[in-house]
Structure formats: structure tokens, C-alpha cells
User: Fold Cell division protein FtsX from Streptomyces actuosus.
Amino acid sequence: MRAQFVLSEIGVGLRRNLTMTFAVIVSVALSLALFGGSLLMSDQVSTMKGYWYDKVNVSVFLCNKSDAESDPNCAKGAVTQDQKNQILTDLKKMTVVQSVTYESQDEAYKHYKEQFGDSPLAASLTPDQMQESYRIKLKDPEKYQVIATAFDGRDGVQSVQDQKGILDNLFELLNGMNWAARAVMALMLVVALMLIVNTVRVSAFSRRRETGIMRLVGASGFYIQAPFIAEAAVAGLIGGTVACGFLLVARYFIIDHGLALSEKLNLINFIGWDAVLTKLPLILATSLLMPALAAFFALRKYLKV
Assistant:
């Protein structure tokens, strides 16, 4: 009988404050959708880091004849065969190096044409203007400085470049966007909590006569509070369910279909459905507990039970 009474009171309360209940559902849905999105963005950045950091190379570019005329690092002339052999030998001796690949001027020219063939500059370049280089795969991408210290400024070496630095700039941008989404999410959560508290108080005020009678006949504090807490929890749970729907639909249309980024951006290793599905229980639990706790603390002061 008591459970039936609580359930009936939930329905009455939700219908009586329909507009505010709808506002609570929308605000909870948006805030938790942003919350889930920020978690997925963190997973995506981590996945991309693991994928790309495993593929980054350190490049040791060697001086050519053109560099000898214009680059101070190549003032002693183009790299000689003896210098190339010595550089290769020293690279292979280093414990941080996993593998070394040599790229000739012809190969560099071919790769440049494949990537920038439409550029006006490509038509004026010749293979002898390209730089020979050693592409070095490190056991630990963080050990770039070891290579830079050993070969930067060495005879025959024009420069040492780390591809990880380029990726770090990209990941910093993605992390910045993620923190911005979290800031908006935090603001939306505050708005949702304020709406929940106001909705509970309005509901409690509209039923103050019933709660007064219940108090007089000896009803426990929890029994009086239960319908109001359950109303907030149900509204929050509906919002959480909508937020889960947003994430599922977004994953489906942005990555798999619609925009189909997984097909258009083959170089990016996107997160899978498992990453999305593992976040849904957390979102649902948050959508249930957050409004219930907010209602509980609001009622303690308002009803004084």
C-alpha cells in the first residue's frame, strides 16, 4: 500500500509541475550528454595518442648542395658518404633506437610529389634539391631529445626534426576543446541542480497540506520525503536516458554513417561502440543519484522533517 501511494504521488507531482519537470529533463539531458561527450573525447585523444605516437619518427635530414650554399648548418658542404655511414653506425648503436630507414633524394622527391603534387612549388623542384634523411623509429617517443643532442649541429646534418612535436600541438588543441566542453557541462549541471531544487520546493509547497496531515498522523520523515525525491529521480533518469540516446545517435551518424568520418578519415583510429556503451551506466547512475540527492538536501531544510 505504501509503495502504491508513493508511486501515485510521483505521477501526481510530475503532472502538476509539468513545465518545470520538462525543463529539468532537458537540462539534465544536455549536461549529461556533454559529460558523456567529454569522457568520450578523452578516450578518443588517448586512442589517437596511442595510435600515432607508435608511428612517429625522428628525422635526421642531411645536407645537400643547395643547403651548403644557403644554410649555416651546412657551411662545411653537402654530406659525404663517410659521414652518412658514420651517422648510420652511431644511430644503430643507440639503445633508444628501434629501427632506422634511409630515404634517398629520389624517394623524398617521390613522396613530396604524392603529397603536394598540386602545389605550384612542386613543378619547380628537382630531386637533387631534396634532402636525404634517416627516419628513426624510437622505442620510446619521449626520448627524442637524445637523438637531437647527439646529431644536431653535426657535420653533414642539416636538422633533426621530431614529428611528435606536431602531434602534441594537435592533442593540446583537442584537450583544450575537451576542457571547454567540460566547463559548459559544469554550468549546465549547476542549472539542472537549481531547477531540481526549485521544482521540488514548488511541489512540496503545493502539497503542504497533505504533508502537514501526514506529519500529524505520525508518518516518518523519509515517508514524507520519498515521493518528492522519487519525482526528481524519475525526471533525472528520463533526462539521463535521453542523454544516452544523444551519445548513441551521435556515434552512429558522426562516425559510422551520415558524416561517416571513419570512412573519410582513414588515418584516425576512432573509438568503438564499446567505449560508448561503457559510459552509459555511469550516465544513468548520475542522472538518478544527482537529482535524488539534490531533492533530499533541499527537502531537509524546506519541510523540516
